[in-house]
């Protein structure tokens, strides 16, 4: 008759090795890269009837940026270097000196700010050629976004002492800052001006 | 004799490794849970453009990707930029189909928050990107993200 032997202990010494192997596999297979980029909202497709009537926009309220296939910028009918785009966009959006050829300032009631004059109807019209390279397009978009972000930052620091970026998504101060400087970039469907 | 003198010249006791597997398992589980295995194989070369005003995409489950770039296998597919949806090349007419199938996968509440990330090579021409944007408008997928990586001013303006 067999003796009731004691159960032999399983040797767990190699457990660590096995776990290490699995760990290394997952370490290698993991993709930690998070995607990042510039966010935009596309305008909805216009209805058939709406398409006919185009909104009249005053000339002073519109800031035209054209990009051709040779990566040159035409801003308000003048050639411009990309390094100057940010500053001139900022001046256009804010119109601090209340100039006649920049957007009209309209007093508006906004939370936290009371009644302040804002360039409510300003529009930045960005138009590119079909042959413009994507890198150029992103550089221009980046500069325009930077112009808005810098203005919002300046306002936010002056008013709340906190950077615009650091305001929480649900914070109504963020909404207020966005109302003072609303992002208005309109993109026309590109024409084939320069040929591609 | 000082109070803290060694009592004996005994050897240093070995560090117990008994808890090592536990620690490693903990790490293992962490990586197992956080891993997102790559779903698609890229068939196009993409070197994203540089930008400074970028934001991170928060929730991966809300994002659909459209890749545009030159095919990796030039000998088979040529060098003209192509659109890649999921695992295969597609024409721009397929985008609407793609968007609606991506919408199907999401819950009702998430559909409004759906974001389309355009991953384009920095050298593709805007023509094809604009076509894709027009299709996205028709599919009313209006939240988009131009995928780009952070770079210095020199890198951003390298085209000028």
Describe this structure in words.
The complex is a heterodimer of chains A (196) and B (160). In chain A, helix 3 packs across helix 4 and helix 4 (134-160) crosses helix 5. The radius of gyration of chain A is 28 Å and the shape is elongated. In chain A, the strands form two sheets. In chain A, strands 4-3-2-7-8 form a five-stranded mixed sheet, covered by helices on one side. In chain A, strands 5-6 form a two-stranded antiparallel ribbon. The longest helix of chain A is centred in the C-terminal third of the chain and has 27 residues, at 134-160. Chain A has five helices and eight strands. By secondary structure, chain A is an alpha/beta fold. Chain A has helices spanning 15-29, 48-52, 82-94, 134-160, 172-180; strands at residues 36-41, 62-67, 73-75, 78-80, 106-110, 114-118, 123-128, 185-187. In chain A, strand 3 (73-75) and strand 4 form a beta hairpin. The mean pLDDT of chain A is 83. Chain A has a domain at 57-187. With 160 residues, chain B is an alpha/beta fold. Chain B has one domain (44-156): Nucleotidyltransferase, domain 5 (2-Layer Sandwich), CATH 3.30.420. Helix content of chain B is 30%, strand content 22%. Chain B contains five helices and nine strands. Chain B has helices at residues 20-34, 74-77, 94-105, 126-138, 153-156; strands at residues 44-45, 50-51, 55-56, 63-71, 82-85, 88-90, 115-120, 143-147, 149-150. In chain B, strands 1, 4, 5, 6, 7 and 8 form a six-stranded mixed sheet that branches. Chain B has a two-stranded parallel ribbon with strand order 2-9. In chain B, a hairpin with a 2-residue loop joins strand 5 and strand 6 (88-90). Chain B is elongated and about 85 Å long. The model of chain B has no long low-confidence stretch (mean pLDDT 85). Strand 1 (36-41) of chain A pairs antiparallel with strand 3 of chain B, so a sheet runs across the interface.
């Amino acid at each position: 008759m067999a003796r009731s032997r004691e159960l032999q202990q399983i040797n767990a010494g190699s457990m660590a090795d096995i776990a290490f192997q699995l760990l290394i596999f997952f370490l290698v297979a993991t993709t930690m890269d998070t995607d990042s980029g510039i966010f935009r909202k596309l305008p909805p497709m216009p209805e058939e009837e709406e398409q006919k009537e185009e909104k009249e926009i005053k000339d002073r309220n519109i800031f035209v940026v054209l990009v051709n296939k040779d990566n040159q910028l035409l801003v308000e009918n003048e050639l411009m270097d990309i390094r100057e785009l940010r500053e001139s966009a900022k001046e256009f959006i804010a119109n601090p000196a209340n100039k006649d050829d920049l957007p009209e300032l309209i007093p508006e009631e906004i939370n936290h700010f009371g009644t302040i004059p804002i360039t409510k109807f300003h529009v930045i019209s960005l138009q590119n050629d079909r042959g413009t390279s994507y890198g150029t397009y992103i550089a221009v978009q980046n500069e325009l976004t930077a112009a808005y972000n810098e203005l919002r930052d300046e306002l936010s620091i002056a008013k709340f002492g906190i950077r615009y970026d650091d305001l929480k998504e649900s914070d109504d101060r963020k909404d207020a800052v966005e109302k003072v400087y609303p992002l208005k970039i309109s993109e026309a469907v590109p024409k084939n001006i320069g040929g591609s | 004799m000082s109070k803290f003198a060694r009592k004996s010249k005994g050897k240093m006791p070995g560090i117990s490794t008994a808890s090592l597997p536990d620690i490693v398992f903990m790490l293992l589980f962490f990586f197992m849970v956080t891993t997102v295995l790559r779903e698609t194989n890229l068939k196009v070369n993409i070197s994203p453009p540089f930008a400074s005003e970028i934001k991170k995409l928060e929730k991966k489950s809300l994002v659909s990707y459209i890749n545009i770039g030159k095919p990796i296998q030039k000998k088979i597919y040529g060098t003209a930029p192509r659109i890649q949806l999921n695992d295969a090349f597609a024409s721009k007419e397929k985008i609407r189909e793609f968007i609606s199938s991506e919408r199907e996968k999401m819950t009702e509440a998430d559909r409004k928050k759906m974001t389309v990330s355009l991953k384009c090579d920095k050298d593709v021409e805007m023509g094809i990107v604009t076509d894709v944007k027009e299709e996205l408008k028709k599919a009313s997928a209006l939240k988009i993200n131009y995928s780009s990586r952070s770079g210095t001013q020199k890198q951003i303006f390298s085209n000028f």
